[in-house]
Write a structure and sequence with these properties.
Structural class: mainly beta
Oligomer: single chain
Radius of gyration: 17 Å
Shape: elongated
Helix content: 10-25%
Strand content: 35-45%
Strand order of the largest sheet: 1-4-5-6
């Protein structure tokens, strides 16, 4: 019988999920879209390989935040500004 040996070396940490659906780990920002915004979630990771971070008890893959995409997400916003009287 074989086991996933990587799972034995994963660390678990409780982190804050910000209102934008992100959390921080080692000065990096990850997206956790299915986590409760403004709450907390458990994350699972291998300290030597931060390319794969998982969150929640279901171990959903988190995605490293692309700051460039995030900064430009409102660039093509079609909403009109409400004039102030």
């Amino acid at each position: 019988e074989t086991s996933n040996i990587d799972a034995f070396f994963m660390q678990k940490r409780d982190v804050r999920v910000y209102k934008d659906g992100t959390f921080h780990l080692h000065n990096l920002i990850y997206e956790a879209p299915q986590a409760e915004k403004g709450g907390r979630t458990e994350i699972y990771f291998k300290p030597w390989d931060l390319s794969q971070i998982f969150y929640s008890a279901n171990r959903i893959p988190a995605r490293l935040l692309n700051k460039f995409e995030n900064a430009n997400r409102f660039e093509n916003d079609t909403r009109k500004e409400i004039p102030r009287g």
